[in-house]
Write a structure and sequence with these properties.
alpha/beta, Collagenase (Catalytic Domain), globular, 4 helices
């Protein structure tokens, strides 16, 4: 699905709020490359969009080694950060036996998927959604109306909002992504869905045209459970881009509260 970028004003803001290949040293959005920013107090306000044009989509890579040419930047630049703060909705301690088993399977699938992306990215897990740039919710995405008027169901969806965040006493432009993942799939298809939606969350706002890639628009007959060479190459190319978003020094006007799971979809 073609991404639709949301501005920070459209999503309630938050206050208060992971064997990696080393992330590129070029300037990227976010304060430094360590996990310290994930645990420091955070304020969020709408992002002031720049007056200059967004980066142009890149030309295809030689020999089709990745799918960078399918990626699209946001109006504020490439949605990348040097270090990602990730929150995953915990299990409900009051759930009954059957529901507790489903929640345990869901958590296991999400955490296994996250481990693969952790091999390429600098990631820290946080205990509160207010601290996170990527928030994974145990929610079935709402039905989505297509161009032809029909409603379409999906097991996973990622929603991107651009915000200005005060981390470590400095304002930074950064992406905020809410990933909605239903718990009704079997473990392996659920893991494949989580792997795909986390790819969107970490900046791959596009779909590959090859079925063997995790980010394929149309997967093959079996769940794709391992990042392909092209998935890895595309992500590493993206992380090498200078994606710093606009920053500002004025303080947040009003303290905000933690957001509920969003309803506006962007990419399946």
């Amino acid at each position: 699905m073609r991404p639709v970028w949301l501005l920070g004003a459209l999503l309630p803001a938050a206050v208060g709020v992971s064997g990696p290949i080393q992330p590129p040293s070029r300037a990227q959005s976010g304060p430094g490359g360590s996990g310290a920013s994930c645990t420091s107090p955070v304020q969020v306000r709408p992002l002031d969009l720049p007056s200059h044009a967004a980066p142009a989509p890149p030309p295809p890579a030689p020999n089709g080694q990745d799918y960078r040419h399918l990626l699209r930047p946001t109006p504020a630049g490439w949605p990348v950060v040097a270090h990602w703060c990730v929150w995953i909705e915990p299990a409900d301690a009051a759930a009954g036996t059957g529901e507790a088993r489903r929640q345990a399977d869901w958590l296991g699938a999400v955490e296994t998927a996250l481990q693969q992306w952790s091999g390429l990215l600098s990631i820290s897990r946080v205990n509160s959604p207010e601290q996170a740039q990527v928030r994974v919710w145990r929610r079935r995405p709402p039905l989505q109306r297509q161009a032809d008027g029909r409603l379409r169901a999906s097991h996973g969806r990622a929603v991107l909002t651009l915000v200005a965040a005060l981390r470590q006493q400095q304002w930074w432009g950064e992406p905020r992504i809410d990933v909605l993942l239903g718990a009704s799939q079997a473990p392996l298809p659920l893991q494949a869905t989580a792997l795909h939606e986390l790819g969107h969350a970490f900046g791959l706002w596009a779909h590959s045209d090859q079925a063997g890639d995790v980010m394929a628009a149309i997967p093959g007959g079996r769940p794709v459970l391992q990042l392909s060479r092209r998935d890895r190459a595309t992500l590493l190319w993206l992380q090498g881009q200078s994606g710093r978003m606009p920053t500002a020094t004025r303080p947040a006007e009003t303290p905000a509260t933690a957001p509920a799971p969003p309803k506006a979809p962007t990419a399946d």
